[in-house]
Amino acid sequence: MRNNSFSIFQGQITGVFGLIGSGRTETFKIVSGIYKRDFLRGGAIELNDRPVRYVVPRQAVKDGIVYVTEDRKSEGFFETMSIAENMFGGLLAADREKSKIISYAEMQALSKDWSKTLNVRAINDNARVVELSGGNQQKVVIGKGLVQKPEIVIFDEPTRGVDVGAIAEIHQIINRLADEGLAVVVISSYLPEILNLSDRILVCRQGRIVEEFSPTEATEEKIMYAAVH
Fold this sequence. Notes:
alpha/beta, Rossmann fold, two-stranded antiparallel ribbon, 39% helix, globular
C-alpha cells in the first residue's frame, strides 16, 4: 500500500470505487486494524484530530470504527449459530458486555430489537444464520456491527449477492446511518450504487486514492477513467 491522503466526515456517505486489485479494501482494512500498517512508511491516521495506530480490530472498535466485511460467509458470521448468538457476539467483540455471565433473555431481546430495526426475516427466533437468504444474512452482519454503537461504519460491497428487495433495504439502512450523523464509507465495484448513495466519491487505483468527485460532477465515464488511467 502507498501513502494516502483523504478524509471521512460525519453525516456523509463517502463512496469508494476501484477495480479489483486497486487496494480499496486493503486501505480500509488498515484503517480498521484488520491489516497491519507499515510502521516506517505507513503514513498517519487521525481520528477527531488524534493520531491513532491500530494493531488489532478491537482497538478500532473501541474507538467507534466498524468494518462490515465483503465476504460475509467466511468473515461475517457464525453460520451454525442463531441470529441472536451472532448479534450478541458483536456486542461481546466490542467489549461492551461486562458481565461474564451471558443472559439468554438479554441476548434474545437484543436480537429482537435489531431484527426489527433491520427487518431481518427468519422462520423463527432461533433460526441459524445459514438458513437465511443472502439479504437477511447480510443484515445480520450489519447488525453485528451496529450493536457496537460505532461512529464510523465501513461497508465493503454491502449488497453483493443479495436480492433486489434487500438491496433497497440495505441502502435505506446506509442512508439512515448518515442521517443520524455517523460517518459512513461504502466500498463498491458497482458504479450505480456508488452514484446513488454517495455524498462524495473517492477513486482508488494502485493502492492510492487518485481522484475525488462530488455527486453533481460525477459520471460513470469520469469515475471509470480515473480508475483505469
